[in-house]
Amino acid sequence: MLELDAITKVFRKRGPFGGGRSTVALDRISVRIGDGRTLGVIGESGSGKSTLARIALRMIAPDSGTVRFGGRDITRVSGKALRDFRRKVQPVFQDSAGALDPRMTIARILREPLMLRGDVPRAEWSKRITDILTAIDLSPALRDRYPRQLSGGQRQRIGIARALLMEPEILILDEPVSALDVSVQANVLNLLRDLQRDRGLSYLFIGHDLSIAEYFCDDILVLHNGVQKDFADAETLFRDPKDDYTRTLLAAMPRQL
Length: 257
Ligand code: ADP
Ligand code: MG
What we know:
10 strands, alpha/beta, 9 helices, ATP hydrolysis activity, P-loop_NTPase, 6-stranded mixed sheet, binds adenosine-5'-diphosphate
């Protein structure tokens, strides 16, 4: 459903004497996320994972390559088709929690996507918010709280709820649990799994913990300095990694099994 084809992105930094250095953040990356599946993107810091996420969200444009959603090249769409894409592909970032406006109650934060959508009658908003809080295993009573009154895990759930209220088809999850305590990470991951099953969502999941990727992802892309090292279903990749770098990565990162 979401296909990235030969995506290249170079960041240019201007040096003090003209000239400058370039970083090839992504070098001809080609992957696809199937319906209802989870594509994991793993790699060390600086390998290009977030750049790929931002391109998949059309937050930034690639230098070359195409992003197709439902068969359509979204690097070129505008107007209604772009609004449609922005609604169906929603981000959840590591700091979704920190990005919540501290002066807004949870109810107010969750009203924003409904306002943005414009197709849900105002009279239904309150019920939608109660329903989504229940769906993410939070008490509807939290609606009158402020973000600082919630735990990190609860705030990340609110970030997920806000994305879900747009009724997306794909969530782009950029290190969604990396800022959370290990004990809370499993809860949020289990929630994401249940939501995927119940709502038929597809995920692009970025992480750096291999044990999480193995547990959570159907397919895995391994990135190293912007280069695609491996792209395979998770089982094959962990059982029989083809690429030398992937092998090193698997050997270097301790996995709790
Ligand atoms: P990751 O998410 O895997 O840590 P990123 O996609 O954030 O990696 O970054 C990949 C590379 O691109 C890094 O070398 C980073 O410094 C560089 N980069 C990312 N965004 C920018 C930017 N806006 N301007 C310049 N360089 C950038
Ligand atoms: Mg990143």
